[in-house]
């Protein structure tokens, strides 16, 4: 089992920045990849960014490239998501996600990000 605890999020004006953090505990030695999903009202959950545990290879959905940066925080066995130049369409609940060897997935409780115009 892996437990994920998120922090960050909140309300920001368009063009502003926010940083999300996720700390993992439990069987973190089984980690393969971590990342962030988001879900806006009436929309499907989408993968925003992910990073592999072994080589820090990061991927992003097209809509956030050059604005968001995912990074590992080895001290807390977690990941951070730095979000710059935020847009109203970035408003969503953001979920920390972990994918481990053996194909199990784990989710955080979600944190609200609201971008006002």
What does this protein structure show overall?
With 117 residues, the protein is mostly beta strands. It has strands at 2-8, 10-13, 18-26, 31-39, 46-52, 58-60, 68-73, 78-83, 92-100, 105-107, 111-116. Strands 2, 4, 5, 6, 9, 10 and 11 form a 7-stranded mixed beta sheet that branches. Strands 1-3-8-7 form a 4-stranded antiparallel beta sheet, with no helix packed on it. A hairpin with a 4-residue loop joins strand 9 and strand 10. The protein is globular. It starts with a strand and ends with a strand. The relative contact order is 0.32.
Compact description:
The protein has about 120 residues and is mainly beta.
* Alpha-beta content class: mainly beta
Gyration radius, in Å: 13 Å
What number is the mean pLDDT?
Answer: 94
The low-confidence parts are none
Helix-strand pattern, N to C?
EEEEEEEEEEE
Largest sheet: 7 strands, mixed
Strand content: over 45%
Measure the end-to-end span: 40 Å
Helix content: under 10%
Task: Give the tally of β-strands.
Answer: 11
Number of helices: 0
Dominant shape: globular
